[in-house]
Each structure stands twice: as C-alpha cells, then as structure tokens.
Amino acid sequence: MSGNGRKLKFHIFRFDPQQPGDKPRMQTYEVEEAPGMTIFIALNDIRAKHDTSLQFDFVCRAGICGSCGMVINGRPTLACRTLTSKFPNGEISLLPLPAFELIGDLSVNTGKFMRIMTERIEGWIHANGEKVNLDSLEERMDPDRADEIYELDRCVECGCCVSACATKRMRDEFLSAVGFMKIARFEMDPRDKRTDREYYNILGNDQGVFGCMTLLGCEDTCPKDLPHQNRIAYLRRKMLGAARKVAASAPARIGSP
Ligand code: FES
C-alpha cells in the first residue's frame, strides 16, 4: 500500500477557452501521496493548496455519476476510481477527454453530446401509442430479461468509450459505443415496440453500427466493463437482417432479372 509520503508529480493540462489570450499548456504540481489516495483526492489537494482556478468535474466520488472522466497517463478513465498507487514512478499526466467540447482544464461538456445522442436514438420506451394506466399494476417482466437490461443500464455515460474510439475521431457524427449500448438496451426491452426496420433507420449506416472498425477501444476503457463489442456485433447482425428485408420488399427495378 502507498502512503509512504512519496512525492507525486502531476502534469496537468491547463486552458481556459473563456479567457481571452489563454493558451493550452501543461503545468506541473507536486503532491504528497496519502494512503488510498485517488486521482480525484489529489486534484482536490492541488486545488486547495496550489491553485484554486483548476477546473475538473465530479459529483459522486464513487464511480456512479460518470462526471470525472479524463485521460490519465494516456488512458480515458474515471479519476475517482483510479488510485495513485497504480503509478510506480509517481509521474501522472492528466488531460481532458477528447471528442467533447472543452469547458476548461480537465472539464468537458459530455452532457451536450449525451443529450444529442439520446435525442437521435430516441432513447426512451416507445409503447406505440399505448396509454399508460397509472392505476394498473406494473407490467411483469421475465427476471432474466430484466437482469440483462439492468446489465446494460449500468452505463454511467462518462464518455471514456467515446474518447477511446478511433472511428469517432474520423466520423464526427458516429454514434459511438455509448449510443449502441443505449439502443441495445431498448431493443431488448419488451415494452419498446420499435421494429428492426425502425432501428435500422437509426443504426444502419456508417455513422451507426456499420461504421465501427472493431478496434476495441470502447471495450478496453469502459470503467464499468460493459460488453460493448458483444452488443455491437449483435446489433450489426440484426441490422444486416433488417437490411435484407428492406431490399427484398423493395420493388424490382425495370430491367433487373
Ligand atoms: S465522481 Fe462520479 S464517477 Fe467519479
């Protein structure tokens, strides 16, 4: 266990886009390590003792809210779940998550991305006009199916998978693993009455599942160990089936055999 009072060196990205004339730079701070110290605790220490202007996000400090995602020694992950003892040489670099709008220093606007993504995939139950009777008992669901949905619902929308995705760097509109995980969650929910064809209209293109190059960045970095590649492969197969049905139902072209 750490706590030997070693000195940690933090190299932290600093830039405030709101400040006219400010330029991106790396700034170094020294912190005395404490037992069980996380990156989040160290950042609070730096802000309290060295620099009150340092910007970074957190809410829950327990890996639940997804606010504290950042790139730690080159890897997107959660600051509140990362122990400083993981870094034997005591040198730690911190950068904001790429692929999101920078608010300042280590703080990015993941909320804007998540909102646009949720609207695009219509990330809510589509009951096809069935009115909900508030006096009725809750609809029953097979417990195994409920467990499967809950497994995918563990996504905390931290944005680590988006930042680790090379396809997203090349295709700005790429839905990304977090979007696919949400779709997979609704596709599996028996209360959602959307057809494969309706999902195909959202997913069946290069900005959707067919654009994924299977580089596994999402799978490697997800702090919740969600089965991204398994779900993406499932959706891709489903969407191929939907594409075949669309093609079969299209009227034959004049001159085609
Ligand atoms: S502060 Fe909530 S996940 Fe880290």
Task: Describe the protein.
The chain is built from 9 helices and 7 strands; from the N terminus they run ββαβββββαααααααα. The protein has helices at residues 39-49, 110-121, 143-153, 160-163, 166-170, 176-187, 196-203, 217-221, 228-249, and strands at residues 7-14, 25-32, 69-72, 75-78, 91-95, 101-104, 107-109. The strands form 2 sheets. A 5-stranded mixed sheet has the order 2-1-5-3-4. Helix 3 (143-153) runs antiparallel to helix 6 (176-187). The N and C termini lie far apart (73 Å). The model has no long low-confidence stretch (mean pLDDT 92). Bound molecules: FE2/S2 (inorganic) cluster. FE2/S2 (inorganic) cluster binds at residues 58-61, 63-68, 78, 80.
Tell how many strands the DSSP assignment holds: 7
User: Helical percent range?
Assistant: 25-40%
Q: Given the structure, what is the number of helices? A: 9
Proportion in β-strands: 5-15%
Side-by-side strand order of the widest sheet: 2-1-5-3-4
The CATH topology label of the largest domain is Fumarate Reductase Iron-sulfur Protein, Chain B, domain 2
Shape: elongated
Q: What is the CATH homology-level superfamily of the largest domain?
A: Alpha-helical ferredoxin
Oligomeric grouping of the chains: single chain
Q: What's the rounded overall pLDDT mean? A: 92
Q: How many domains, in number, for the residues?
A: 2
